[in-house]
Write a structure and sequence with these properties.
26 helices; 7-stranded mixed β-sheet; globular; single chain; alpha/beta
Length: about 1000
């Protein structure tokens, strides 16, 4: 087995964390003008995929660990399609949709090609490549090889290229051998890790940025971009400054970017992620693959340096990092083990991607080729500044071109635009005088400065807003006449950036000279920021904030959220600091009328009311709240109560613990918790793990996390996501999660449409789209004393992996139904694809010695032994129409395509019970349906030794009941239903099916 490279391993981990998405898609849209040979292009792409194994490598899992599966040339099926388009508007939508569609790394080749035909002589070729198979430095060899192969195929020959000296799999093996093990002090990994431990010690966990919205617990990874270009003249000036200061152009850009982030509130310790090519061996130069590594460059802006001084610091940091660039980022994260959160990227949240290259050309015979700009709509980080240094053939600067990509969860487009404008102004300022200190660099436009310091500072609304929130001594005779929001250097902060409030016209104690003229000004100690409309947004007090897990937290905000809990009379929070240096936020509470405290309920409430990083680690019950002389909670006294030492928690009720309220946990819950403790210990290589101990605090990391989830799946029979492990990292918390979600996961593999009844249940296997809720219409026809369960496909949640074969699917579904009914006789029903799976289940149950009393197939047909399977792919529109068909609903009679929102509204209005439809859920259904159709085409059924109840959709000619005769030893009881195949769950056909099944089942146990 060939392991993934470390870079690939991280992307695989992220794919498992997020599910199938387009976040890590690379797109290359090329407009081709002229006479294009479609067949030659397809053949050329196949040639390139055969040449580079990375482009035909799937990811398989063995015991929870990923390995490479290189598809043999004989099995290769290139995903290439030619699609006609009506015009540029339709083309733009298709490019965006196709570019954003994710890959199933276990089943899809990481490259697909779509050729959009605008006319006979105008095409757009879209290559979509998952980052796991390619990086930015791979595009040159990729373009070169496609060009050479297309030219050869147009001439009816094969490409004559030099053989590659190595393949990507060779690199993955070599990389592990090169690095060695971290516990070997002589290994390269150990030596480089020593550097990075020292370099990143105490690095901020989360960079403060001028967010327009609170950070969500789980990012959507939706993004936008603002184009950025520095012209040839500016580029030449940057190059000259770099040469004069003994640095590179990249280092000038990096220093300016760090200065920008400092200016918008990121502080003076600014970690930025920077990709490096990772091609440290010449043999890798012409290879397509994912070699790039990410370095964390820690920018030190302390002491208000000049820009020249900052360049010197930047050079020293960058060169030292490059000397230690071999240690993969994911191994660095595992070793440093920063506070884990699904809300933000570890170690850095801002990236700077810089590449120097000649102007790229894509020569194809007889064609004019140009890049067709297409937004990808995704964002991997909070912010990512990408710049490509364009050079002419002789190396002359030709401009810096790129974009600022931003997460739309966090930023408005106008904020990102303002950041790019500030970056341009900063570049201009440092080029004018690089000897100026950072505090002297101007990034506000004259108009912006005038608006902030003159118009808004005298706004009565702003003064009133501050007056409602400030804390000045009583007896102040009048309000201030001017109000400024300033940074530490007493400069006005830009819109959206937090600063401290200063006022004139009132005496609040010590004062400083007002830099804007007039009276002296007084520091209020309050934080605020200006909104784009000139309103003031108070942000609490500057003093009293605490840092926990890299986040700056205002305890007042946490307390305000918890006070909304009806059972709490008084709440205060304090920081617990253990001997190890670990800092946790702890809530202390006094209940109403002295009632018993349920800490788990309070923590559950906190998770709903507060952002993830503000949720306390524990809740402690107090008889009374200690207070200071002025009646405020005495946080110093509370902190003294919460100080602990060692691993055993000092608090009686650790976060997510199962012992809330002093009540004994139910026996089943206690058994599940004990099992999880054993799994934790096994995976971590420990003798035992207590139920309150955190997986990541004990040394767990992403790869061990995947191994843990694999063991949970095997021993507990439940599929969990990595996001769940991040949110519930202790055995007790994980057990609580399993209990809490056991009854409310609408996409779990077995859905009880009716859980009660004294008869044996009827199990209904989902049709092609994987949705079992479609069978809910049977409830009114099947006798109320018979339970009804629906089996649903793995993968609907975007987390579980879809089955690899019909046989594997049947085996998994038998496990699910046996959890409800351990032994036969069994009653099985399946519509369409579900009928084929139900027949396979029946065969396996009979082989296990079980009785199958009912096998009902609804217009389901096997694939013939001589049929040639063709791989298909299901699109969004087909999925939406299929969903409506499954629930017996008509598509709305309106022009244009269906939307997810409209279909969801129809399902909700009809009371189908199907959970809310989202874009992500539609994409997951498309993946499942595509997989199921291809599984059906590849499946060759065995023989079931029993009778079959069959329902034929009489108005369709998909197949005949006789096709099952080679696969059934008993009788085939056929019933014609006057409908089309897709309409079998509509009310009229369902009445025929339901009454027939009810009569059949009435004779059964």
């Amino acid at each position: 087995m060939i392991p993934l490279s470390f870079a690939q391993q991280r992307l695989w981990f992220l794919a498992r964390l997020e599910g199938i998405s387009g976040t890590y898609n690379m797109t290359m849209p090329l407009r081709l003008s002229g006479a294009l040979d479609h067949d030659a292009l397809q053949a050329a792409l196949c040639d390139v995929v055969l040449r580079h194994e990375s482009l035909r490598t799937l990811v398989a899992e063995v015991d929870g660990e990923p390995v490479q599966r290189i598809v043999d040339a004989s099995e290769l099926a290139m995903d290439f399609r030619v699609l006609p388009v009506a015009g540029e508007e339709e083309l733009a939508g298709l490019l965006t949709a196709e570019g954003g569609r994710g890959f199933d790394l276990s089943a899809d080749l990481p490259l697909r090609a779509r050729l959009f035909a605008v006319s006979d002589t105008e095409h757009v070729l879209l290559l979509v490549i998952h980052h796991i198979a390619c990086d930015g430095w791979s595009l040159d060899p990729l373009v070169r090889d496609v060009s050479l192969a297309y030219a050869a195929r147009c001439s009816w020959t094969e490409p004559d290229w030099e053989p590659l000296p190595v393949q990507y799999a060779d690199y993955a093996l070599w990389q592990r051998e090169l690095l060695g093990q971290e516990d070997d002090p002589d290994s390269l990994a150990s030596q480089q890790l020593t550097y990075w431990r020292a370099q990143l010690s105490g690095v901020p966990a989360v960079l403060p940025l001028p967010l327009d919205r609170p950070r969500p617990d789980v990012p959507s990874h939706r993004g936008g971009a603002v184009p950025l270009r520095l012209d040839e003249h500016t580029h030449r000036q940057v190059t000259e400054l770099a040469r004069a200061c003994g640095v590179s152009v990249f280092m000038v850009v990096q220093a300016a970017f760090a200065a920008l982030l400092n200016r918008v509130g990121a502080g003076t310790d600014i970690p930025v992620g920077v990709p490096v090519a990772g091609r440290t061996d010449e043999g890798l130069t012409d290879l397509v693959g994912f070699f790039v590594n990410t370095l964390v460059l820690r920018n030190d802006l302390t002491g208000n340096p000049t820009f020249r001084e900052l360049l010197t610091r930047t050079r020293d940091t960058s060169l030292a990092a490059l000397d230690h660039q071999d240690l993969p980022f994911d191994r660095l994260v595992e070793a440093l083990n920063p506070t884990r959160s699904t809300a933000h990227h570890p170690l850095f949240q801002v990236m700077l991607a810089f590449q120097s290259s000649p102007v790229t050309r894509f020569p194809l015979p007889g064609l004019d080729v140009s890049v067709h700009p297409t937004p990808n709509g995704t964002a991997k980080f909070d912010l990512c500044l990408t710049l490509d240094e364009q050079l002419t053939d002789d190396g002359t600067p030709a401009g810096l071109t790129g974009e600022l990509e931003y997460a739309t969860d966090l930023f408005d487009h106008t904020t990102a635009q303002a950041l790019t404008e500030r970056f341009r102004r900063l570049i201009t300022a440092v080029l004018t005088d690089p000897g100026r200190r950072l505090s002297q660099l101007e990034d506000l436009s004259p108009e912006e400065r005038r608006r902030i310091t003159e118009e808004w500072s005298t706004s009565g609304e702003a003064v009133a807003a501050w007056g409602r929130h400030h804390r000045t001594p009583t007896g102040v005779p009048a309000g201030p006449d001017r109000l400024y929001v300033l940074d530490e250097g007493l400069r006005p902060v830009p819109v959206g950036v937090a600063g401290e409030v200063y006022v004139t016209g009132v005496d609040l104690g010590p004062s400083v000279a007002c830099p804007f003229g007039g009276d002296r000004m007084f520091r209020t100690g309050d934080l605020a920021r200006w909104r784009a409309d000139g309103r003031l947004q108070p942000l609490g007090r500057a003093a009293g904030r605490v840092t926990v897990g890299g986040f700056r937290i205002d305890p007042d905000e946490v307390e305000a959220g918890l006070r909304r809990h009806p059972a709490l009379d008084a709440v205060a929070v304090a920081v617990r600091e253990e001997a190890s240096g670990q800092r946790d936020l702890v809530a202390f509470a006094v209940t109403v009328d002295g009632a018993a405290l349920d800490p788990s309920a309070v923590l559950g409430f906190a998770r709903e009311a507060l952002p993830e990083f503000m949720v306390p680690a524990a809740v402690v019950a107090l008889d009374r709240m200690p207070v200071t002389a002025d009646g405020e909670p005495d946080r110093a006294a509370l902190a003294a109560l919460s100080v602990g030492s060692g691993r055993q928690p000092a608090l009686p009720l650790p976060a997510d613990g199962p012992r809330g309220g002093g009540e004994a946990a139910p026996e089943a819950q206690a058994e599940r918790t004990a099992t999880l403790c054993e799994i934790f210990a096994e995976v971590l290589g420990m003798d035992e793990v207590e139920d309150w101990e955190d997986f990541f605090d004990l040394g767990g990391h992403s790869l061990l996390g995947m191994r843990l989830l694999s063991r949970v799946r095997e021993q507990v029979g439940v599929e969990l996501s990595l996001q769940t492990l991040f949110k519930a990292p202790t055995p007790a918390a994980l057990a609580e999660h399993l209990q809490r979600t056991a009854d409310d996961d609408p996409l779990r593999p077995l859905i009880p449409l009716r859980a009660t009844g004294n008869k044996l249940p009827l199990f209904c296997v989902h049709p092609g789209a994987g949705i079992g809720w479609a069978y809910s219409g049977l409830l009114r026809h099947i006798a109320p004393d018979r339970p009804l369960h629906a089996l649903q496909a793995h993968g609907l949640d975007g987390v579980r992996q879809p089955a690899a074969t019909v046989e594997a699917m049947a085996a998994a579904y038998i496990d699910h139904l046996r959890a409800v009914q351990p032994h036969g006789p069994y009653h099985l029903l399946g519509w369409s694809f579900g009928g084929v799976v139900a027949q396979e289940m029946a065969i396996r149950l009979r082989e296990a010695g079980e009785e199958v009393a009912t096998l009902a197939l609804l217009d389901a047909y096997p694939v013939g032994p001589d049929d040639e399977p063709e791989r298909v792919e299901i699109g969004e529109q087909e999925v939406l129409r299929t969903i409506l068909d499954f629930f017996g609903q008509d598509a709305p009679e309106a022009d244009g395509p269906l939307s997810t929102q409209r279909v969801g509204e129809i399902l909700a209005a009809q009371g189908t019970g199907f959970p809310g439809l989202t874009e992500g859920r539609v994409q997951a259904i498309a993946t499942v349906q595509t997989n199921n159709v291809n599984l059906l085409n590849a499946h060759r059924p065995g023989r079931f030794d029993g009778d079959v109840v069959f329902f034929t959709a009489a108005e369709d000619d998909i197949g005949t009941v006789d096709e099952w005769r080679p696969h059934v030893t008993g009788r085939l009881h056929n019933h014609d239903v006057p409908c089309l195949h897709k309409d079998m769950m509509r009310p009229e056909p369902l009445e025929v099916i339901g009454q027939t099944m009810a009569a059949w089942l009435a004779e059964q146990p």
